[in-house]
Amino acid sequence: MKTVYLDNNATTPIAPEVYEAMIPYLTGQYFNPSSMYGPATEVGDALKAAKRTIAHFLGVGNVTQILPTSCATESNNTAIYGAVRANPGRRHIITTSVEHPAVLEVCKDLQRQGYEVDFLPVDTHGTLDVRAFIRALRPDTLLVSIMHANNETGVIFPVDELARVTKETDQSILFHTDATQTAGKLPINLRGSFKNVDLLSFSGHKLHAPKGVGALFIRRGTPIRPYLIGGHQESGRRGGTENVAFIVGLARACELATEHRDGEDRLRGMRDRLESSLQESIPYLEVNGKGAPRLPNTSNVAVHYIEGEGMLYQLDEAGICASSGSACTSGSLEPSHVLKAMDVPFTAMHGSIRFSLSHYNDESDVDHVLDVFPRVVASLRKLSPYWDSETDRPTGKI
Q1: Which single residue of 25, 39, 51, 83 has CA 20 to 30 Å from 267?
Q2: In whole angstroms, what is the distance from residue 202 CA to residue 184 CA?
Q3: Which member of 71, 107, 321, 328 is catalytic?
Q4: What average pLDDT does the chain have?
């Protein structure tokens, strides 16, 4: 049975070109890049070249602004905790209620330590009120951390505008964005539209590099303290021997993402066909975040009156890999904090499924979902006490 993988916002397969680029540094070129002898110097040169590629991918020219990390979670933790430690005179942070846990839980931890944190709400489309954001800025605001796009719904936030407003209000307020879901999907230019962003995080395994590697952009002059202490690597900003093979792989993935960017319209076309066909064939199905700008590859559909776990189980049996939300919280019985923040109706809160595509997907994958998913929904609704299969309508018992 063919596997149709539609959970690319959770992780992506390693591109063959990425794997090939990594192999030399997993085998013969195993040397520590900090060592002084010739073979190690060559590995150090490869590390510098990889960082130059990542810098170019983000639209910056100075490799010293690129800090390789183990993942986006480390990048986010380094950005937020590092900014807090370097700026003890300020105690106010602004973020949103729909951030990834790698940001949300850090901010909650700081709140428990006595920091004031504003978790800004979103509307039913998942968008942020810019006026509410402006009102939240204060003279003691230390940091703003707002994601570029939401991992569950794909809703894009106007980071360029928010960062500009922040700096116009007070140049000393630091602006961080978690670009884990947009790096490789949307163009990012830190010398252009993102010129007011001080810190930017992303992860390799969302753009066809391996798990275990990410990066943090730190604009020159940004006050930030190291998060991992223990060595002189990365100019003292992150202790620990660099994972050269994986950083090289990340750089190659960045190159490939740039090459594939012209496929955005194809992804959007598949996503839109999937959504419109499902809405035609399944009553009481809505698209979460449809009224907002979204990533071209992401669709989060809310199916009323049935449980997402049941849908995922039957989709899996049919060879379809999807998600009920963030992979980092998929083991929880609690409904998604993102959907709760969007006021998704109770009848659909547990019945939302995320399909996320990559350039490896094609129209036949969409066809398979369109063939299977309506039958899955119909079979589960027959078991639901809230659905009348004869009339194909809710019973009204809720």
Answers
A1: 51
A2: 10
A3: 328
A4: 94
pLDDT tens digits for 264-305?
Answer: 899 999 999 999 999 999 999 999 999 999 999 999 999 999
Q: Using DSSP bridges, classify how beta strands 174-178 and 298-303 pair: parallel, antiparallel or unpaired.
A: unpaired
Which pLDDT tens digit goes with each residue over 80-134?
A: 999 999 999 999 999 999 999 999 999 999 999 999 999 999 999 999 999 999 9
- pTM over the 0.85 mark: yes
Q: How far apart are CA 353 and CA 125, in angstroms?
A: 16
Domains, the chain: 4-11+263-394 (3.90.1150.10), 16-259 (3.40.640.10)
Residues 133 and 137: their CA atoms lie apart, in Å, by 7
Q: What is the pLDDT of residues 350-391, one digit of tens each?
A: 899 999 999 999 999 999 999 999 999 999 999 888 888 888
**DSSP symbols for 314-342:** HHHHTTEE-BSS-GGGTT-SSPPHHHHHT
**What are the CA-CA distances from residue 41 to residues 47, 66, 222 (Å)?**
10, 20, 29
Q: How many residues does the chain have?
A: 398
Residues 332-343 pLDDT 10s: 557 899 999 999
**Which strand (E) or helix (H) includes residue 155?**
none
The answer to whether the CB of 129 falls within 8 A of the CB of 153 is: no
CA distance 370 to 368: 5
Told to judge if 328 belongs to the known catalytic residues of this protein, a careful annotator would answer yes
Q: Is 92 within 8 Å of 140 (Cβ atoms)?
A: yes
What are the distances in angstroms from CA 17 to CA 48, 96, 245? 19, 37, 13
How many helices (DSSP H) and strands (DSSP E) are in the chain?
A: 12, 14
